[in-house]
């Protein structure tokens, strides 16, 4: 399986986070599964590229990365994370 381009990964992250709205988050694995064609597809190898795309989007202010329900700076991203649309200021 070829890894989707970063733009395609970013677009799927933005699509899913927008669909959930700023009050709910998504798991990066949901993005990987969607890009791989579902749960039966080879989605696990996509987790690294999905996380990298999420970090790039967070740096642009287009998504928030959450740990334990709280936003974290990209420098502190590790372990289990979730993603959401940034809340209005």
Overview of the structural elements:
The chain has 89 residues and is mainly alpha-helical. It has one domain (6-84): Winged helix-like DNA-binding domain superfamily/Winged helix DNA-binding domain (Arc Repressor Mutant, subunit A, Orthogonal Bundle). The protein contains 3 helices and 3 strands. It has helices spanning 6-20, 28-36, 47-59; strands spanning 64-67, 70-71, 82-84. The radius of gyration is 12 Å and the shape is globular.
Name the features.
3-stranded antiparallel beta sheet, 89 residues, DUF3253 domain-containing protein, 3 helices, WH_DNA-bd_sf, Arc Repressor Mutant, subunit A, DUF3253, mainly alpha, globular, WH-like_DNA-bd_sf
SS content category: mainly alpha
Number of helical runs? 3
Strand order of the largest sheet: 2-1-3
CATH names the topology as Arc Repressor Mutant, subunit A
Rounded Rg: 12 Å
What overall geometry do the principal axes of the alpha carbons give? globular
Distance between the ends: 40 Å
CATH class: Mainly Alpha
Spans of 5+ residues with little confidence (pLDDT < 50)?
Answer: none
Secondary-structure element order, as H and E? HHHEEE
Protein name: DUF3253 domain-containing protein
InterPro entries: DUF3253, WH-like_DNA-bd_sf, WH_DNA-bd_sf
Organism: Paracraurococcus ruber
